[in-house]
Amino acid sequence: MAEKAAWDFYSDKKKNNQSCFDLVVIHPLLVLGPVLSGNVGSSVTHLLKVLNGTIEKLPNIYYPTCDVRDVVSLETSD
Fold this sequence. Notes:
Helices cover about 40% and strands about 10% of the residues. The protein is mainly α. The chain has a domain at about 25-78. Strands 1-2 form a two-stranded parallel sheet.
Protein backbone atom coordinates (compact mmCIF):
# COMPACT_ATOMS: atom_id res chain seq x y z
CA MET A 1 0.00 0.00 0.00
CA ALA A 2 2.83 2.39 0.83
CA GLU A 3 4.59 1.67 -2.46
CA LYS A 4 1.36 2.19 -4.42
CA ALA A 5 0.82 5.50 -2.65
CA ALA A 6 4.36 6.57 -3.53
CA TRP A 7 3.87 5.67 -7.21
CA ASP A 8 0.50 7.45 -7.28
CA PHE A 9 2.09 10.58 -5.78
CA TYR A 10 4.93 10.42 -8.30
CA SER A 11 2.56 9.86 -11.25
CA ASP A 12 0.31 12.76 -10.21
CA LYS A 13 3.30 15.13 -10.00
CA LYS A 14 4.58 14.08 -13.42
CA LYS A 15 1.11 14.20 -15.00
CA ASN A 16 0.68 17.80 -13.78
CA ASN A 17 4.18 18.79 -14.96
CA GLN A 18 5.28 19.49 -11.39
CA SER A 19 8.85 18.97 -10.32
CA CYS A 20 9.40 15.78 -8.39
CA PHE A 21 12.17 13.51 -7.21
CA ASP A 22 13.01 10.28 -9.05
CA LEU A 23 11.33 7.28 -7.44
CA VAL A 24 13.10 3.96 -7.05
CA VAL A 25 11.70 0.95 -5.23
CA ILE A 26 13.93 -1.79 -3.82
CA HIS A 27 12.59 -5.15 -2.66
CA PRO A 28 15.47 -6.94 -0.95
CA LEU A 29 14.65 -10.25 0.70
CA LEU A 30 17.14 -10.19 3.57
CA VAL A 31 18.52 -6.86 4.81
CA LEU A 32 21.41 -7.01 7.26
CA GLY A 33 23.58 -4.38 8.89
CA PRO A 34 23.98 -2.28 12.00
CA VAL A 35 20.89 -2.06 14.18
CA LEU A 36 20.19 1.45 15.44
CA SER A 37 17.35 0.69 17.83
CA GLY A 38 15.83 -2.07 19.92
CA ASN A 39 13.51 -2.95 17.03
CA VAL A 40 15.64 -5.36 15.01
CA GLY A 41 13.10 -6.17 12.30
CA SER A 42 12.33 -9.44 10.57
CA SER A 43 15.63 -9.93 8.72
CA VAL A 44 17.79 -9.64 11.83
CA THR A 45 15.32 -11.74 13.82
CA HIS A 46 15.62 -14.53 11.24
CA LEU A 47 19.42 -14.36 11.30
CA LEU A 48 19.46 -14.43 15.12
CA LYS A 49 17.32 -17.58 15.07
CA VAL A 50 19.82 -19.22 12.74
CA LEU A 51 22.77 -18.19 14.92
CA ASN A 52 21.24 -19.21 18.26
CA GLY A 53 19.99 -22.58 16.96
CA THR A 54 16.28 -21.84 17.26
CA ILE A 55 15.90 -22.91 13.63
CA GLU A 56 17.15 -26.49 13.45
CA LYS A 57 17.20 -26.86 9.69
CA LEU A 58 17.47 -24.41 6.86
CA PRO A 59 16.09 -25.19 3.45
CA ASN A 60 18.60 -25.40 0.62
CA ILE A 61 17.60 -22.09 -0.92
CA TYR A 62 19.30 -18.88 -1.93
CA TYR A 63 18.70 -15.73 0.12
CA PRO A 64 19.29 -12.55 -1.88
CA THR A 65 20.95 -10.45 0.81
CA CYS A 66 22.00 -6.82 0.96
CA ASP A 67 23.50 -4.46 3.47
CA VAL A 68 21.13 -1.90 4.95
CA ARG A 69 23.63 0.84 4.03
CA ASP A 70 23.28 -0.15 0.36
CA VAL A 71 19.50 0.06 0.60
CA VAL A 72 19.61 3.63 1.85
CA SER A 73 22.52 4.93 -0.21
CA LEU A 74 21.70 7.18 -3.10
CA GLU A 75 23.91 7.89 -6.05
CA THR A 76 23.21 10.70 -8.43
CA SER A 77 24.83 11.30 -11.77
CA ASP A 78 24.81 14.66 -13.46
